[in-house]
Write a structure and sequence with these properties.
The chain is mainly α. The chain is about 75% helix and about 0% strand. It comes from Trichonephila inaurata madagascariensis.
């Protein structure tokens, strides 16, 4: 039953030319995979930045103690906490932008293949060949 339902959906999806081209293509090319990874990481970054910005606005606009915390915390402690979280939020927004730009640059300019090659040369220096992928991986990872 589930198989019939999946086949029905699949066949209906083939009616759309764009989806048909994607589903019936032999495989994705490496450039397409890299572009998809970059697009996905930017989509995640934009979503997380949107959520962080909303939280930043809450820190900025909430100047009095919420009723739920009225008996738990005093105004001075609340202000210190709010200002700390506001500064932390600004710093996080800047750091996340830097991280995203750096990650994109590494992908676009071939940083990963370069570091893998460098790791392979390092294993050769220590007496191992390029066929020792595990050794190369540990050097690459560290």
């Amino acid at each position: 039953m589930a198989r019939d339902w999946i086949e029905k959906i699949y066949l209906q999806a083939l009616d759309f030319p764009i989806i048909r081209d994607i589903l019936l293509a032999p495989a994705w090319m490496p450039v397409q995979i890299m572009n998809a990874i970059i697009a996905f990481t930017w989509a995640v970054y934009i979503w997380e930045t949107y959520l962080s910005y909303r939280q930043h606005k809450m820190y900025k606009n909430t100047k009095s103690i919420p009723p739920e915390l009225a008996g738990v915390i005093d105004q001075t402690t609340f202000n210190k906490s709010r200002l700390y979280n506001l500064d932390k939020s600004k710093f996080n927004l800047i750091c996340s932008l830097y991280d995203q730009l750096f990650q994109t640059a590494v992908l676009v300019f071939g940083g990963i293949p370069f570091l893998w090659s460098l790791s392979g040369r390092a294993t050769g220096y220590f007496g191992y060949g390029r066929e020792h992928e595990v050794s190369i991986f540990f050097i690459f990872k560290s």
